[in-house]
Structures are given as structure tokens and as C-alpha cells.
Amino acid sequence: GFPRETAKKLVLSTIRGSASYAQRSSEAIPTLKNNVTSPGGTTASALYQLERGGFRTVVADAIWAAYRKALELGGNDSNVGPGRSRGKQ
After folding, report:
1. What percentage of the chain reaches a pLDDT higher than 90?
2. 62-87, pLDDT tens digit by residue?
3. CA neighbor of 68 nearest in space, from 56, 83, 88
4. Spatial separation of the C-alpha atoms in residues 87 and 89, rounded to whole Å
5. pTM higher than 0.90 for the full model?
6. Do residues 2 and 10 touch, judged by C-beta distance below 8 A?
């Protein structure tokens, strides 16, 4: 892989640029993604690997886990989200 400092700069620049692009645009995020994804290009290859590895599911699960923990720490019912039912059984 890249040296740690190079990897850090690449990641931060990519995230900063993506966030800036999204904030300046009135387009929906999926449209922006499609605008920068050339068929058979580097972005398409990266997105394919992310989806193949379950990236979307892992990120969604992590967000739900953090949300549930925040509810729990606040003394609230944390039995919410996908695969959960609100009522006590």
C-alpha cells in the first residue's frame, strides 16, 4: 500500500473534495455519483469492489449500532431499526 502519510493525504483530499462537490450541487447524491463514474473506469471499479464486499451493509449496520447505543446510554428503548421490533414480547 501507500506510505501512511500519503494514504492519509489521499483519503482526506478525496473526502474533502466529495463533500465539497455535494454541498455545492443541487443534484441528488446518486446523480453526482453517476456523474463521476465512467463505465469501466477507476471509480466504477472501486464501487464494484465496495459493493461486492458488503460496504453499504456494513456502514448501515455500524450507524444503527451507534444509534442504538446512544439510545441505550440515554436510558431509552434501543430496540429500533432493521430486524428489530418496538414492542416488548
Report:
1. 89
2. 999 999 999 999 999 999 988 887 65
3. 83
4. 6
5. no
6. yes
Grid coordinates in use for 32?
453526482
Average of per-residue pLDDT across 30-53: 96
Tell me if 23 sits within 8 A of 29, measured CB to CB: no
C-alpha cell at 39: 463505465
Cell 458488503 -> residue: 54
Nearest to 68 by CA among 58, 77, 55, 56: 77
The CA distances from residue 81 to 26, 35, 65, 71, 89, in Å, are 29, 32, 9, 12, 16
CB-based contact 27:35 (threshold 8 Å): yes
- Give the count of beta carbons closer than 10 Å to the beta carbon of residue 27: 13
